[in-house]
Amino acid sequence: xxxxxxxxxxxxxxxxxxxxxxxxxxRKLYGRRTGKEMLTDIKEHDDHYDLEIELPGFxxxxxxxxxxxxxxTVTAEKSHDQDKEKGGKLIRQERYYGSMTRSFYVGxxxxxxxxxxxxxxxxxxxxxxxxxxxxxxxxxxxxxxEG
Length: 147
Description:
This protein is of the alpha+beta class. It folds into 2 domains: 8-33, no CATH class; 38-129, Immunoglobulin-like (Sandwich), CATH 2.60.40.790. It has 3 helices and 7 strands. The mean pLDDT is 77.
């Protein structure tokens, strides 16, 4: 039988545990059962990749996708004001309000015109074309001599 030895200072040092404080902050922001990341599956096909990002509870209007310097950035933002309009007295709140952002490096060869996205049933699917790496031809390091 394994028993844990209780130390008098366990609770004392818990007050200074930064990791514990960060976990508590995450619970306040994201709820106890929600991860702070956008859960993403990446599927490879012959000519493209699909990113499937779970964003339950968000509307299409709450989502933003941008491409800058080779990074694809997905932002989802839900304000508390959206539900205030429905009326009624809030007794308990467990749903998430705020914004989340996640970035993926997709390379600088891809342009925003080549990326397609759709949002259905709380899942954002982004299709990215597969590009072959172009072999760089090394230029000879010769100096032209005139004459």
